[in-house]
Design goal:
By secondary structure, the protein is α/β, with parallel strands linked by helices. The protein is built from 11 helices and 12 strands.
């Protein structure tokens, strides 16, 4: 499948998405810098998030509107206040889309409600992303599918039955190009709960491209995912974790994003095909295999022994498989 000029599939290098999220820290200048640096680091796409605190939730305190989980990065925060801090102002989007185009990467976003879909369509977004926590929002899925644009949907915090329903809704409403991203909705996530072996299973079940939305630290998990067939990798990105930001704790820095781009492409290149035999590039190495050499002077009629023949490098002599035949064959009575 294609998103604009980018081909996505197992015969193409991984498509790398740098997720800005709220790491702009409410600075347009910083947001534009994130796009420029992500492009220089080798990302193929920049992803935004399109919502306001009011489109995400209501201004309410108490109960689940407050984050009480002691392990959460956002513990003791109120949802409404968190989204006020993290959202990307809608009036910035046009400048960010233009900045991405000027830096030869594509820009798209995650809409969190119908008004965000309409807004992104007015900017001619090349694709829509559905976040894990919205993949059960059937009205939103219908709205996105009916745009006819490619849809990338994360699968975190979902049962297989949930995913089956969501994929069916998308396809019934006109989505022809679908990418599912294996995702673990922990922030940060650990390699142990990433379960990337799910990737080929998702591909077989839903007959679509599959990738990884990764919240682990480092690049090991994405590289593993690519070896299992992931064609898209999404990672949060920031200029510097030390400078903070709502998602900076599990975001890659520029040098790490460069490494991700390089190493996931190497992982993809290494897949190749089922191959046995001697490759063209190996032929010159045949000289360094082993063969049987006479290593001591042998007189006429003298038998071969462990002292006068050895299996050694280089490999231009008799093959080692004949060693025992030479060693243990008695001379003919006529010799």
């Amino acid at each position: 499948m294609k998103i604009k000029e980018y081909q996505i599939g197992q015969s193409h290098k991984p498509f790398i998405i740098a997720e800005m999220s709220g790491n702009h820290n409410q600075s347009l200048e910083r947001g534009l810098k994130i796009i420029e640096v992500a492009a220089k680091s080798g990302a193929d796409a920049i992803k935004l998030q399109t919502y306001t605190a009011d489109t995400m939730t209501i201004n309410q305190k108490g109960g689940l509107f407050d984050i009480k989980d002691s392990t959460s990065l956002w513990k003791n925060r109120n949802l409404y206040e968190l989204y006020q801090e993290a959202y990307t102002p809608w009036e910035w989007h046009e400048a960010m889309f233009k900045c991405a185009a000027d830096n030869n990467v594509i820009c798209f976003s995650t809409p969190f409600d119908a008004t965000a879909v309409d807004f992104l369509e007015s900017l001619d977004t090349p694709a829509h992303k559905i976040a894990s926590f919205e993949n059960n929002d059937h009205p939103l899925l219908k709205k996105v599918a009916r745009t006819g644009k490619p849809v990338i949907m994360s699968t975190g915090a979902s049962t297989l039955a949930n995913l089956d329903e969501s994929v069916a809704i998308l396809r019934e409403n006109g989505c022809k190009d679908l990418i599912l991203l294996k995702c673990t909705s922990n922030y940060p996530a650990s390699p142990e709960n990433s379960n990337v072996r799910t990737i080929p299973h998702l591909r077989d079940l839903f007959q679509c491209e599959v990738g990884l939305s990764d919240h682990t630290m480092g690049i090991g998990v994405p590289c593993a995912a690519v070896t299992l067939g992931a064609t898209v990798i999404e990672k949060h990105f920031c200029l510097s974790r030390a400078e903070g930001g709502v998602d900076s704790a599990f975001s890659l820095e520029p040098d790490e994003l460069k490494s991700l781009v390089i190493e996931t492409e190497r992982a993809w290149q290494s897949l190749g095909q089922v191959q046995y035999g001697i490759q063209e590039t190996e032929k010159k190495s045949l000289a360094f295999k082993r063969s049987i050499y006479v290593v001591k002077e042998i007189k006429a009629g003298e038998i071969f022994t462990e002292e006068n023949i050895r299996v050694i490098r280089p490999g231009d002599g008799l093959a080692p498989k004949y060693y025992d035949c030479l060693l243990y064959t008695s001379p003919s009575p006529r010799d």
